[in-house]
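Limitations
The structure tokens in this dataset are predictions for the assembled complex, not deposited experimental models. Users should treat interface geometry with appropriate caution, especially where small molecules or nucleic acid strands are included. An illustrative entry is reproduced here so readers can see what is and is not provided.
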Amino acid sequence: MTSDIFTEDYCDTLCELFNIGMGRAAVSFSEMMGDEVLLTVPSLKAVDFNTALELFQCISPGHVNAVEQCFDGQFSGNAFLFFNDESSLELVRSILGEGNWGSELGELEQEALKEVSNIILNACFGCIADVLECELTSSVPELISGDIGDVFDVERMHIGEEPMVLTLSMSFSLTSKEVKGQVSLIMASESIKRLITELERFSTLYV
Amino acid sequence: MAKPKSVLVVDDSRLTRMMIVKMIKTHHSDWSISEAATAKEALERVDSASFDYISLDHNMPDGTGYDILPKINELQPHAHIGIFTANIQAVVKQRFEDLGATFYGKPINEEMILKFTADGGL
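Predicted assembly:
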């Protein structure tokens, strides 16, 4: 699914950059886990903010855990790595070992989730910045637990005019456990335009 | 003068295919280059034509490099095969090398492509 301004070609380019970033993240992730990380083929959707909210409410009507990191540079926005409760707990068990973790995330488990997300999101930021030859800085990761309305809280995010949501769906799993994660970027239209300018500049090198 | 070579570029990302094609064409304008966007298309191409070089992606929507490399090896025993993937884990690299392919981690750059097209020793 593409929007009017975010065409299929831009989606393909950004998707490939995320794919490379996730590949880099998988190296660190597999070292943490001592196991091979299997990655699926990523797909990217670009929709306006309200449509994204509706879609997320349909796909994940219940409780979700999302780690948020803001990024800033030539373009800026808020990046989220989503896990449902089951995936979050599987991930924590994989990192911290089997234990009586219960059904809710405690402080240690939250730290583990934030650290994994930090590795994954920064690998994606790093790859985008390296390939597009720009600089992106990122904030400290924050864990948000709740329904999708709590995660996509417009007042907290200060996301600017006409925000758009770019959602990358990609799951990663270990040999024995499946952990599904999804990355979403929320960017104001002005920032999307700057991202598109960078993608255009990059793509023209290879036409 | 060296005979022009034939190359098959397999990758589901149009961008990556464009990059590889452009980089090869820059140095070998007379080489013929075919593209495949899926594992299925790749198998169709290797079944119907002969290639000197094959660049192969790993994660594709309809199959992986692991799935199709044995068949490609069987049909194109003389082709130099380079795996170009974002999945740069050591275990993945080792598995492809055991299957006789050369491994290159994305992002792709010109040096990598030059090495790939020189590595074949054709």
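Some entries come with short summary sentences. For this one: The radius of gyration of chain B is 13 Å.
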